[in-house]
């Protein structure tokens, strides 16, 4: 299982909250030393920005995008030409894990050529947002979703890796997804059976209680919620294919009988599986 697959599997639980979005323009020899409590994304529209982070220096030109992680210090400066950029502060979460992006090496300077279309969409949405036009906040949020999705796709394909992180985060609230990869792969392969927390905890080398806590802090959902979501995703796909009866889907997803499956399905989709696809 690719680590970024979690965004597909749990797309219904992904949330994005924009805290602020503004245009910032700076004259020659501007310098800023900061850390932020949330994610900070800069769309450079003019000039150059020199960034010192993780004990190295790099430069972003017009068209490039800069992503800073929360609580990671940087120094930004300009040369003689100054710079202009649109910045957006935001949270990006799965369930209750508001720092889910921290488990991926994304913070750094994203070359403009790799995200040109997505950056342009965002900047085009920024203009009506700045004027407070009708539904402009929703449009801006949508384009930010698209940008982050593209960045994750580039990362998953090995086409982009950020350079601002010198070492893994030591924040106690941020868990490394790598340790859970065997667990996530096991769940994917065993959806046709009942899966207990005990066997998952054993696979991770943890006690049952600690595993539940660790899983929720890492993924944003409990193991039970995660398994339920995957089963509902599969059930939806089976029903759209129209190749399986409800009783067969119940069996394929490890439910003891069609009634138990139908009850779980209706709880999630608010309609019984027999009426889901017409």
UniProtKB/TrEMBL annotation:
<dbReference type="Pfam" id="PF02311">
    <property type="entry name" value="AraC_binding"/>
</dbReference>
<keyword id="KW-0238">DNA-binding</keyword>
<dbReference type="InterPro" id="IPR018060">
    <property type="entry name" value="HTH_AraC"/>
</dbReference>
<keyword id="KW-0804">Transcription</keyword>
<feature type="domain" description="HTH araC/xylS-type">
    <location>
        <begin position="181"/>
        <end position="278"/>
    </location>
</feature>
<dbReference type="InterPro" id="IPR050204">
    <property type="entry name" value="AraC_XylS_family_regulators"/>
</dbReference>
<dbReference type="InterPro" id="IPR014710">
    <property type="entry name" value="RmlC-like_jellyroll"/>
</dbReference>
<dbReference type="Pfam" id="PF12833">
    <property type="entry name" value="HTH_18"/>
</dbReference>
<dbReference type="InterPro" id="IPR009057">
    <property type="entry name" value="Homeodomain-like_sf"/>
</dbReference>
<dbReference type="InterPro" id="IPR003313">
    <property type="entry name" value="AraC-bd"/>
</dbReference>
<dbReference type="GO" id="GO:0043565">
    <property type="term" value="F:sequence-specific DNA binding"/>
</dbReference>
<keyword id="KW-0805">Transcription regulation</keyword>
<protein>
    <submittedName>
        <fullName>AraC family transcriptional regulator</fullName>
    </submittedName>
</protein>
<dbReference type="GO" id="GO:0003700">
    <property type="term" value="F:DNA-binding transcription factor activity"/>
</dbReference>
<dbReference type="InterPro" id="IPR037923">
    <property type="entry name" value="HTH-like"/>
</dbReference>
